[in-house]
Structure formats: structure tokens, C-alpha cells
Amino acid sequence: MAIENCSRCGVQLVVPQDAQTIRCAVCQAITRVHSYYPLAQARESATRFTSGLISMVSSNISGMTGSVSSSSYPVPGYGGYYAQPPIRPVLQLPLPSMHGRKRALLCGVSYRGKSYKIKGSINDVKCMRYFLVEKFGFPNDSILMLTEDETNPLKIPTKENIRLALRWLVQGCQPGDSLVFHFSGHGSKQLDYDMDEVDGFDETLCPLDYETRGMIVDDEINATIVRPLPQGATLHAIIDACYSQTVLDLPFVCRMNREGYYTWEDQTRSPYKGTSGGLAFCISACDDNQTSVDTTFQFCRHWQEMLQLVP
What we know:
One of its GO terms (cellular component) is cytoplasm. By secondary structure, the chain is α/β, with parallel strands linked by helices. It is built from six helices and 16 strands. Strands 8-7-9-13-16 form a five-stranded parallel β-sheet, with helices on both faces. A three-stranded antiparallel β-sheet has the order 10-11-12. A hairpin with a 5-residue loop joins β14 and β15.
């Protein structure tokens, strides 16, 4: 396996052996896979050195004459000449710093003002934050919350903000890191067009603006936070949404009955959707063919009874 950055959005892609191109699950762009044979690698290194040298010389000349552009100098490449490719700007989101080995993304979407609004989603992620900080020692500044209560527009749970936050969650991930992704909101499913689902449907998460911007598909979630996970790193996902059992597209599903007996189902399809050596777990509220609803009285009474049993 090799790692390539998407030519359009820059997300890391895990490339199967001998693949010449790969499609990005985030932006759907096709990226050409670079050759890693020694000769090609040396050729690319020489090209990068030449490109940097010409760029440096051009900058110095530009400082003296104010009129020279590096793009006017062709850079020698294999089989011909080409101009130095432009550098894509990287969108910087003011997110919490990557603190130590623990990081969490908590998304609570209530869909206020809609007929399908949810009452408890924001409270869910607030409770999860308290749980992670008080019980598992997560630093406050290592937890990113996206809810409709936030005043920062970049922390509202829109599709684009959730996408950026998912990339932040695994950015710079190293062995020993512990990552948490919690989503509380609506989930759905749609027809699977790339034939990698056992049941023929892709599972999805519904951001706040999904009616206009669309849903986040399990293929994208897997490519963003599962496949880049390196050996020694662990991801725990807690998904409180409808149709959410395989929303991370993990290779295996555990089914357990009320007596505690369980079996593992192989969900492996092509292409490979496992990690890059790390461990990924998903605890889902529903099976892929089930829905969930808000509860009030029964839920509160159940927890009151449970708390009375605690010494």
C-alpha cells in the first residue's frame, strides 16, 4: 500500500498495490498514482530540485527587475518540458490544536425550525464532552464541538464544516493516539452506485444543510477517518442516527443478541476499506435497516432507576 494526496482537495488516499489512478471519495477527483521505482523516484527528485532552483533564481531576478515570472521558465521533465505547477491554497480552519494523544470531534445537530427537529442532540454531545474530560482525561482544547449553539460560523454542523473537522480529527495522527468521533442527528441511506455494499445501499449522515448541500456518505467518512489511521492509533466512533450500523464502512460487523451471544459478519468488499494498521470501532444506535426516535419520560425513568442501584 502507498499513500497519495488527492490532486484536488489534498486529502490522503490509501492506494492499492499496482493501481495507476485512484478516485477521491471526498471530492471525486481522479489522481494519478506516482511511480515509486528507484529510477522514477530519482527522476522526480531531480525535477523537484530543478524546479526549486529555477524558482529561487527567478525570485532573485524579479527582485531586481520586477518583471520576471518563474512560469516563463520551462522545467525539464521526463519526455518533454512543462511549466512549474501552481501551488493549491490550503484552507485553514481555526480549530483546536492537536493536543497530545487524545482528540475528539463531537457533532450535535438538532435541525431547529424544521419539522424533523431533534430535541436531545446538543445535550448528547455536551454529555459526551463531560464524559471524555472527566472520565478519560481528554484536554478541553483537544475537543471540537459542532452544534447550532456555537457563535463561530465555522463550528456550525454544516456539511463543509463537518468535512473539515473530520480531516482535522486525523491530521498528523501517530501511533498511540486515541481519537473519538460522536455524531448525534439524523441518518439516512441512498443507492450504492459503486457496488461495495452488501445490502446495496450507502449509509449517510445528515448535516444541518443536507437539504441544499447533500448528505455525507459512508464512503467519504471511511476514506477520511478510517483508511488513514496508522498502526498503533485507535478510533472510537459513536453514531446516534438512523441506518447507522455500517456508516463507517468497517470490514466487519458484530451482531449480538440479548443473551450476549455474538457473531462477526464479514463486510469486506473491493476496494479495501480497512485502516492503515490502526484500530477503528463504531458503536451505532441502529442497524442499517432501523430508525431511532427521541425519548423523554421512559428514558429518564430508566436512568433514575439505574442510578438508585449505584452505591
